[in-house]
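Hey, can you fold this one?
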Amino acid sequence: MSIDRNVKLAAAGDMAAFEEVYRTYHRRVYTHCLRMTRSVAEAEDLTQEVFIQLYRKLKTFRGDSLFTTWLHRLTTNAVLMHFRKNAARPEQAIDDVDALNGIAGKTQNHNGNSLIDRIALDEAIEQLSPGYRAVFILHDMEGYEHNQISKILGCAVGTSKSQLHKARMKLRRLLRLRKRAAFPRAMEQEKQAGTGRQQLLRPVPACLQQAG
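Sure. Predicted structure:
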């Protein structure tokens, strides 16, 4: 696999080449940091940290994978380490299959409801543990496959699948709890409507069947 010329030169200590690498990949790194932290200030600080680490570790890049994959892994690990240093955020429970499938980076509508849904999802994602959050963002929001995620995070494919499942379950419960808190009357009406439908669907007693 060929290695970009500027990456090769930068690995050899060429500062002009490293500056070009920085200009080429700065936005990509910053965007990933921002997506994981949901904080502009943290993303800016982490982007600088990533490029400091990149300067120190670039000579270890052998070209066994794409440079973008290697840089993505470096960025993700830097963010996860940042979370761990700050005691991470507590795992809490989550929400709705339709909400997750519709909101996770796939809703492009700009109406009020989709914006509110997106804000709710962002807040729920913040409450995931670092590992769950990383897998959920990489798979459901950035479109990476599990084999790619395993290389980026340095984990088994099975671990990636398991963490994604657990992250989705937590998000579903969190979103449902948020919905109940925001719309208690609507949730109660929905519950009552469901009970009514169940009653309508109850089997007809045998005596009534015979009466016909």
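The chain is about 75% helix and 0% strand. Let me know if you want another pass with a different chain boundary.
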